[in-house]
Amino acid sequence: MFGLDTTYTILLILCLFAACAFEFINGFHDTANAVATVIYTHSLKPTTAVVWSGLWNFIGVNVGGIAVAMGIVNLLPVELLVDKNLLHGLSMILPLIITAIIWNLATWYIGMPCSSSHTLIGSIFGVGLAYYLIPGSHSSALNWGKVIDVGLSLFISPVLGFAIAIILMFILRKLVHNNQIFNEPTSKKPPPMWIRSILVLTCTSVSYAHGSNDGQKGVGLIMLILIAFSPVFFSVDRSKHPENLLYETKQIEWNLRKIDQKVLSITEQSALDTVFSNLTFIKQKLAGIRSFDDLEHEDHFNIRKCIILVSKKTEMLLKKIQTYPGSNISGIQISIIRSNLRDFKTNTEYAPRWVILLVSISLGLGTMIGWKRIVVTIGEKIGKTHMSYAQGASANLVATITILASSWLGLPVSTTHVLSSGVAGTMVAGSGRQNLRMGTVKSIALAWLITLPVTILLSGILFFVLRTIFV
Known about the structure:
The protein is mostly helical. It has two domains: 6-233 and 359-469, no CATH class; 236-345. The protein is built from 19 helices and no strands. The protein has helices spanning 6-30, 32-40, 46-63, 67-73, 78-81, 86-109, 116-132, 144-175, 193-229, 231-234, 242-256, 266-286, 297-321, 331-345, 353-367, 372-381, 389-409, 415-431, 438-469. Helix 8 (144-175) packs parallel to helix 18 (415-431). The longest helix is centred in the middle third of the chain and has 37 residues, at 193-229. It is globular.
């Protein structure tokens, strides 16, 4: 399969199964955040809620795009992804999966809302940092620009969720004069239909948003596995014709030639020269090629490196050029180049349809199992009072907006921490800080703080051990 012998095919299948297991665990670990509000307001019965949530997680993965998935893939250096020694690829993949599964299961078992996003990204950071420390690999570290973006996204989003939830509750109290929405459920009967509809709609939106963001992390993990095991088949999108890539390459070069190089600094001129040399390499390799099968094996990897480097350097140049007064490149021309780049990057930033389907099924099925532990924490242990209808709807709405915005920006975000901080914000808005169960809040905050360092350390150690074994 994918040009691998029997042994490596078996190892690949095992790694794919483990990745699906991670996404399955992600389903029952994080879905509780979406269904807690409708369960504790008696808007939906638990079984109905988790099945409904699972369906919308499935839909979210399938229609939510792959921007976050590619953000995950691009965290690691290209050289680490594509190593001629397949055992080295295995030593990268196994620490990611083992660390993510162990930490997710451990926190789920004790009922602690913990971020699957933090867990996976911490594992990736650990492997990237460990690889950086290997003699001879100092030139290839983590993609630090992406690391900073991801780190800020993970750490700022819960704070925003908490603050926005308080503001939203304040606005609701000013605008909505029907006090019924601010009351706690008095029985196990469903709330009035209009309130119930709002709660079910917000639960649905969180489930969809969770699939569109967290599901993409599973897609990114599987793409890491596939690129590491079979770079010939997955370094570039083989469903596209080489002539398309050749045309896109020529379009970028033709538009970049219009830049007035006299206004460029020495550093910028060097970057532009690098872009042109890499575009020339791609043109040379694709000249006369009718199929990617006609390429030499190592050229698949080299073309991938060129595409990534051209995209990065060109984006940097465009940001500089558009600030120059009197630049001979207009805003329209810059927009055209960026449009060319988007098409150009789809040759490496892609995921086969079967990968997306596999992840969506795993996440959807996981959603329907094991949700009770986290639901109890979200529904009963964050606030001292029972969750009101307005609190449930507000927390879900805040989580939806935050997660969808992050997905649009291509940034991973923690559904767990955004929603639990939103619930905490609604509790504070109702009766102040004294309405919070500080023990639970501290536990959630502790998980928020220690997940990254613990997973970085564990995955880094596992990487060193396996890399030593698989010399």
